Amino acid sequence: MSIVRKDEYYSQIQGAAQYLKERLKSTPKVAIVLGTGLGNLSDKIKNAEIFSYSEIPHFPQITVKGHAGNLICGEINGVEVMAMQGRFHYYEGYSMKEVTFPMRVMQALNIGTILISNAAGGVNGNYNAGDIVLVTDHISLHQDNPLRGENDERLGTRFPDMFSTYEKELILKAEDIAKENNIKTHRGVYFGWPGPNLETPAEYNMINTLGGDLVGMSTVPEVLVAKHASMKVLVASVVTNECFPIGRLSPTGHDEVIDVAKIAEPKLTQIISELITRI
Ligand code: HPA
Asked: In the CATH hierarchy, which top-level class contains the domain 6-278?
């Protein structure tokens, strides 16, 4: 999929969406990307219909053995959702168009809202590992962009503006729910880092200087396409490692990231499963 012709990409999206439409018992209203920190939410989906990525025409395939790759469609608190269990990261070698293919399928299914979670390094000195941050904006260091290439007007405009990309109303609702449940949240700016290496101490410093509060390797391409598709977006990050000031930095392993995310998982699951009912 390195150079993708507009009509070919469009027909692949339609093919995948058609496959799902023919099988779905109901129409999903909200899409969820179950990133690190939200994995448990899949257990809350009732009347679930599970589609493996490998059965959906044109869907990118999971290359890492043991990683889940499913679209789970069903109800959470009575609301129809479509959840991605397993996402595609640019650092794995997928093209940007592959990374964001699922968002195009959501668009083709007329899903108007996407809720995205991720694990991120905390580059704000006030954040602690395990904290939840509602993302208000982003800065991207990705050199590639899923919107690069001939624009397909059927999918969105050539030069999408990025004003109010992170829907204020959704952030406020998420904050209300957090307060009602005594869950602490922050607001912050997510810095998109291509990876796969983590940042050097000097790079964490730079990210803080540039205005980043969090840094992570997913989400930005997904948000760019969701905005191009005129979807409402909420992003919630779990701070898995403290990266600023430099004195708080320690070697960070993937297992540690996963372990910390697990601690925050019930809180984020609570916020998102309730938010779904208020959209
Ligand atoms: N940097 C980039 N991505 C991450 C980090 C980090 O420190 N922690 C979790 N994802």
From this structure: alpha beta
